[in-house]
Amino acid sequence: MVDKKASNITWHKGKVTYKDRAKNLGQTGMVVWFTGLSGSGKSTIAVEVEKVLFEQGKAVYLLDGDNIRHGLNSDLGFSPEDRKENIRRIAEVAALFKDAGLIVLTSFISPYRVDREFARKRAGRECFKEIYVQADVETCVARDPKGLYKKAINGELANFTGISAPYEKPEEPDLILATGELSLTECVNKVVKLINIEL
Fold first, then answer.
1. pLDDT at residue number 9
2. Any catalytic annotation for residue 110?
3. N or C, which end of the chain is more exposed by having fewer CB within 10 Å?
Protein backbone atom coordinates (compact mmCIF):
# COMPACT_ATOMS: atom_id res chain seq x y z
CA MET A 1 0.00 0.00 0.00
CA VAL A 2 1.29 3.44 -0.90
CA ASP A 3 1.96 5.94 1.90
CA LYS A 4 -0.79 8.53 2.07
CA LYS A 5 0.41 12.12 2.05
CA ALA A 6 -3.00 13.56 2.96
CA SER A 7 -4.30 12.80 6.44
CA ASN A 8 -7.39 14.97 6.78
CA ILE A 9 -9.55 12.97 4.37
CA THR A 10 -12.80 11.06 4.85
CA TRP A 11 -14.38 8.37 2.69
CA HIS A 12 -17.85 9.50 1.56
CA LYS A 13 -20.39 6.77 0.96
CA GLY A 14 -22.96 7.24 -1.78
CA LYS A 15 -26.53 5.98 -1.93
CA VAL A 16 -25.86 3.59 -4.81
CA THR A 17 -24.05 0.37 -3.91
CA TYR A 18 -21.97 -1.99 -6.00
CA LYS A 19 -24.86 -4.47 -5.88
CA ASP A 20 -27.21 -1.79 -7.20
CA ARG A 21 -24.91 -1.02 -10.12
CA ALA A 22 -24.35 -4.72 -10.92
CA LYS A 23 -28.12 -5.34 -10.87
CA ASN A 24 -28.73 -2.33 -13.11
CA LEU A 25 -26.19 -3.65 -15.64
CA GLY A 26 -27.29 -7.25 -15.30
CA GLN A 27 -23.77 -8.53 -14.72
CA THR A 28 -21.09 -9.02 -12.10
CA GLY A 29 -18.26 -6.50 -11.95
CA MET A 30 -14.95 -8.23 -12.59
CA VAL A 31 -11.25 -7.60 -13.20
CA VAL A 32 -9.65 -9.92 -15.75
CA TRP A 33 -5.89 -9.45 -15.47
CA PHE A 34 -3.79 -10.55 -18.46
CA THR A 35 -0.10 -10.94 -17.59
CA GLY A 36 2.86 -12.19 -19.61
CA LEU A 37 5.97 -11.11 -21.45
CA SER A 38 5.97 -8.40 -24.09
CA GLY A 39 4.94 -10.06 -27.34
CA SER A 40 3.18 -12.97 -25.65
CA GLY A 41 -0.19 -11.93 -27.07
CA LYS A 42 -1.87 -10.16 -24.13
CA SER A 43 -3.19 -7.12 -25.96
CA THR A 44 -4.14 -9.06 -29.09
CA ILE A 45 -6.27 -11.47 -27.05
CA ALA A 46 -7.73 -8.78 -24.77
CA VAL A 47 -8.83 -6.63 -27.73
CA GLU A 48 -10.74 -9.57 -29.24
CA VAL A 49 -12.26 -10.55 -25.89
CA GLU A 50 -13.52 -6.99 -25.39
CA LYS A 51 -15.14 -7.06 -28.83
CA VAL A 52 -16.86 -10.40 -28.21
CA LEU A 53 -18.16 -9.37 -24.78
CA PHE A 54 -19.38 -6.03 -26.12
CA GLU A 55 -21.26 -7.81 -28.90
CA GLN A 56 -22.84 -10.01 -26.21
CA GLY A 57 -24.21 -6.85 -24.62
CA LYS A 58 -21.76 -6.72 -21.71
CA ALA A 59 -20.45 -3.50 -20.20
CA VAL A 60 -16.72 -4.02 -20.69
CA TYR A 61 -13.62 -1.85 -20.88
CA LEU A 62 -10.00 -2.61 -21.75
CA LEU A 63 -7.08 -0.97 -19.94
CA ASP A 64 -3.98 -1.56 -22.07
CA GLY A 65 -0.41 -1.05 -20.86
CA ASP A 66 0.86 1.15 -23.69
CA ASN A 67 -2.34 3.21 -23.80
CA ILE A 68 -2.24 3.93 -20.05
CA ARG A 69 1.36 5.11 -20.34
CA HIS A 70 0.22 7.74 -22.87
CA GLY A 71 -1.86 9.46 -20.20
CA LEU A 72 -2.42 8.39 -16.59
CA ASN A 73 1.07 6.91 -16.21
CA SER A 74 2.99 9.06 -18.69
CA ASP A 75 5.25 10.22 -15.85
CA LEU A 76 6.54 6.70 -15.14
CA GLY A 77 9.51 4.84 -16.58
CA PHE A 78 10.46 1.19 -16.25
CA SER A 79 12.53 1.07 -13.09
CA PRO A 80 11.31 -1.46 -10.48
CA GLU A 81 9.85 1.45 -8.49
CA ASP A 82 8.03 2.91 -11.49
CA ARG A 83 6.74 -0.51 -12.53
CA LYS A 84 5.31 -0.96 -9.04
CA GLU A 85 3.62 2.44 -9.14
CA ASN A 86 2.34 1.74 -12.67
CA ILE A 87 0.56 -1.41 -11.48
CA ARG A 88 -0.64 0.23 -8.25
CA ARG A 89 -2.42 2.96 -10.22
CA ILE A 90 -3.90 0.46 -12.66
CA ALA A 91 -5.09 -1.75 -9.81
CA GLU A 92 -6.87 1.21 -8.22
CA VAL A 93 -8.50 2.25 -11.51
CA ALA A 94 -9.53 -1.35 -12.29
CA ALA A 95 -11.05 -1.70 -8.82
CA LEU A 96 -13.10 1.47 -9.37
CA PHE A 97 -14.34 0.23 -12.75
CA LYS A 98 -15.24 -3.12 -11.19
CA ASP A 99 -17.13 -1.29 -8.43
CA ALA A 100 -19.07 0.47 -11.19
CA GLY A 101 -20.18 -2.99 -12.33
CA LEU A 102 -17.98 -3.24 -15.43
CA ILE A 103 -15.94 -6.16 -16.68
CA VAL A 104 -12.45 -4.68 -16.74
CA LEU A 105 -9.82 -6.29 -18.95
CA THR A 106 -6.25 -5.28 -18.11
CA SER A 107 -3.28 -6.04 -20.35
CA PHE A 108 0.00 -5.38 -18.55
CA ILE A 109 3.27 -7.27 -18.29
CA SER A 110 3.00 -6.77 -14.49
CA PRO A 111 6.16 -8.79 -13.87
CA TYR A 112 6.03 -9.02 -10.07
CA ARG A 113 3.73 -11.39 -8.17
CA VAL A 114 3.40 -9.03 -5.21
CA ASP A 115 1.95 -6.30 -7.46
CA ARG A 116 -0.52 -8.69 -9.09
CA GLU A 117 -1.55 -9.84 -5.62
CA PHE A 118 -2.16 -6.21 -4.67
CA ALA A 119 -4.43 -5.85 -7.72
CA ARG A 120 -6.32 -8.99 -6.68
CA LYS A 121 -6.89 -7.65 -3.17
CA ARG A 122 -8.06 -4.26 -4.43
CA ALA A 123 -10.60 -5.79 -6.79
CA GLY A 124 -11.69 -8.46 -4.31
CA ARG A 125 -10.55 -12.05 -4.70
CA GLU A 126 -13.98 -13.26 -5.80
CA CYS A 127 -14.04 -10.70 -8.63
CA PHE A 128 -10.51 -11.14 -9.98
CA LYS A 129 -9.27 -13.53 -12.67
CA GLU A 130 -5.57 -13.80 -13.45
CA ILE A 131 -4.77 -15.01 -16.96
CA TYR A 132 -1.21 -16.00 -17.76
CA VAL A 133 -0.50 -15.45 -21.45
CA GLN A 134 2.37 -17.90 -21.77
CA ALA A 135 5.15 -17.62 -24.32
CA ASP A 136 8.84 -18.15 -23.69
CA VAL A 137 11.41 -15.45 -24.32
CA GLU A 138 12.63 -17.13 -27.51
CA THR A 139 9.12 -17.08 -28.99
CA CYS A 140 8.60 -13.43 -28.01
CA VAL A 141 11.99 -12.47 -29.46
CA ALA A 142 11.03 -14.17 -32.73
CA ARG A 143 7.72 -12.27 -32.81
CA ASP A 144 9.08 -8.94 -31.52
CA PRO A 145 6.09 -6.95 -32.90
CA LYS A 146 7.41 -3.60 -31.62
CA GLY A 147 11.12 -4.23 -32.18
CA LEU A 148 11.73 -3.90 -28.45
CA TYR A 149 13.57 -7.16 -27.91
CA LYS A 150 16.09 -6.23 -30.59
CA LYS A 151 16.74 -2.92 -28.83
CA ALA A 152 16.98 -4.62 -25.42
CA ILE A 153 19.40 -7.27 -26.69
CA ASN A 154 21.52 -4.53 -28.28
CA GLY A 155 21.61 -2.65 -24.97
CA GLU A 156 19.45 0.22 -26.19
CA LEU A 157 16.66 -0.47 -23.66
CA ALA A 158 17.31 -0.88 -19.94
CA ASN A 159 15.10 -2.78 -17.51
CA PHE A 160 13.40 -4.78 -20.26
CA THR A 161 11.39 -7.70 -18.90
CA GLY A 162 12.71 -11.08 -19.97
CA ILE A 163 16.09 -9.70 -21.05
CA SER A 164 17.50 -7.36 -18.41
CA ALA A 165 14.65 -7.42 -15.88
CA PRO A 166 12.83 -10.37 -14.29
CA TYR A 167 9.37 -11.78 -14.90
CA GLU A 168 7.77 -13.80 -12.10
CA LYS A 169 5.35 -16.33 -13.56
CA PRO A 170 1.95 -16.68 -11.87
CA GLU A 171 1.89 -19.61 -9.46
CA GLU A 172 -1.85 -20.32 -9.60
CA PRO A 173 -3.44 -18.41 -12.48
CA ASP A 174 -7.11 -18.91 -13.24
CA LEU A 175 -6.24 -19.64 -16.86
CA ILE A 176 -3.06 -20.30 -18.86
CA LEU A 177 -3.03 -19.46 -22.56
CA ALA A 178 -0.06 -21.02 -24.35
CA THR A 179 -0.07 -18.77 -27.39
CA GLY A 180 2.56 -20.85 -29.15
CA GLU A 181 0.10 -23.76 -29.24
CA LEU A 182 -3.36 -22.18 -29.28
CA SER A 183 -4.89 -20.07 -32.04
CA LEU A 184 -6.19 -16.57 -31.29
CA THR A 185 -9.76 -17.83 -31.60
CA GLU A 186 -9.10 -20.66 -29.14
CA CYS A 187 -7.56 -18.24 -26.64
CA VAL A 188 -10.46 -15.80 -26.93
CA ASN A 189 -13.05 -18.55 -26.53
CA LYS A 190 -11.36 -19.84 -23.37
CA VAL A 191 -11.33 -16.37 -21.80
CA VAL A 192 -14.93 -15.57 -22.74
CA LYS A 193 -16.06 -18.92 -21.32
CA LEU A 194 -14.22 -18.24 -18.05
CA ILE A 195 -15.83 -14.81 -17.75
CA ASN A 196 -19.36 -15.92 -18.65
CA ILE A 197 -19.27 -18.71 -16.05
CA GLU A 198 -18.82 -16.04 -13.37
CA LEU A 199 -21.50 -13.60 -14.55
1. 85
2. yes
3. N
Taking the domains of the chain in order of start, what are their residue ranges?
18-198
Which runs of consecutive H residues, i.e. helices, occur in the chain? 18-25, 42-55, 65-69, 80-99, 113-123, 137-143, 148-153, 184-198
> Pick the catalytic residue: 38, 43, 110, 164?
110
Distance in angstroms (rounded) separating the CA atoms of residues 120 and 116: 6
Spell out a b/e string for 39-48, using b for 16 or more CB atoms within 10 Å of the CB, else e: bbbbbbbbeb
Residue 5 has pLDDT above 80, yes or no: no
Per the prediction, the chain carries an average pLDDT of 93
Which spans in 26-136 are helix H?
A: 42-55, 65-69, 80-99, 113-123
The C-alpha atoms of residue 96 and residue 104 are separated, in whole angstroms, by: 10
Q: Does domain 18-198 have CATH number 3.40.50.300?
A: yes
